[in-house]
Design a protein that fits this description.
The structure is a single chain. With 99 residues, the protein is an all-alpha fold. It is elongated, with a radius of gyration of 20 Å. It contains two helices and no strands. Helix content is 62%, strand content 0%. The relative contact order is 0.10. It has a domain of 62 residues. α1 packs antiparallel against α2.
């Protein structure tokens, strides 16, 4: 039996959940993030479209809630990226003159 570290293990044997984003994003990580954000944005747009087409009020409300969930996930990822980028850019020296 494995001992649990600082990251919680999921019940189905999947990888542990990260509680904080990593300090460094690799090129592969960036590719995954771009894909995930594209999928979330597409899901948000599809939910908005199908909610507008829906006649049943309960179904429309459920689709709207799903769209809002996808939008929150998109905004969370974007927020993490912006925070990390702002902190990283603050550590980069500014050029002193033009050449």
């Amino acid at each position: 039996m494995q001992s649990q570290g600082s990251q919680p293990q999921s019940q189905s044997g999947q990888q542990p959940v990260m509680m904080q984003p990593p300090a460094v994003i690799t090129t592969k990580d960036l590719s995954y993030l771009k894909d995930e954000m594209s999928w979330l944005l597409l899901a948000t747009k599809k939910c908005a479209h199908f909610a507008a087409e829906c006649q049943d009020a309960e179904v429309k409300q459920m689709i709207d809630q799903l769209g809002q969930m996808h939008q929150r996930h998109y905004n969370t990822i974007l927020s993490h990226c912006n925070t990390q980028n702002t902190q990283a850019m603050a550590g980069i020296p500014k050029p002193t003159g033009s050449q």
